[in-house]
């Protein structure tokens, strides 16, 4: 069951998502970032961000590496075979089978609760961070606020920037927490707004920590279930749950790879 804390955070994020359009002016270089932060701080405060979150925003810096990565996502343009080769599909499948066997109790419990098979969760875990081997070196708050400021996809990233600041407020991350270039965090690389909305306490310690593997796996399963996963139904192309994998990542080649690897991990 979700904790009251998780429910209250979800409600707060819902309010933020429903708030009027942000007045902060986007930009395409670092020149206007500080002015944007000032304007965005006022809007974030209206959305419910508290002092710690506002301080993290004030300390955020323009992330040039994030912008470079956002403009250069070449791997999603590969053929399926090339994509799987580049992303190490055979290793992910092998390691996924091993990890499933080593922690069968966890994955059986997650499938019982959420209906999502181990193979899908392990394929995502392997694809996103090499099973936690590398969860990113970019400062999450700086990365996600840079993308919210950047004009290319400001509307998409703005709620996630608010989410990141709310995560700081609740103590889940700090202004120095590291994640991926696009501000994704934890073992399976949740965008901050999704971390707030779908994150769950999988290990029962009273907090949601997506840098904890059990919490991350439970949260990933919860995300997929909330997005429409149908327990017991297939997840290959043309089957009911394939469209739910699309909710995790918009790239077709990624979706195909997860479906294929998941099935091979599940055997």
From TrEMBL:
Residues 1-23 form the signal peptide. One of its GO terms (biological process) is peptidoglycan catabolic process. InterPro entries: Lysozyme-like_dom_sf (IPR023346), MltB-like (IPR043426), SLT_2 (IPR031304). The lineage of its organism: Bacteria, Pseudomonadati, Pseudomonadota, Alphaproteobacteria, Rhodobacterales. It comes from the Bacteria. Keywords: Signal. The keyword Signal applies. Pfam families: SLT_2. This is Lytic murein transglycosylase. Residues 33-236 form the Transglycosylase SLT domain. One of its GO terms (molecular function) is peptidoglycan lytic transglycosylase activity. SUPFAM superfamilies: Lysozyme-like. CDD domains: Slt35-like. It comes from Sulfitobacter undariae.
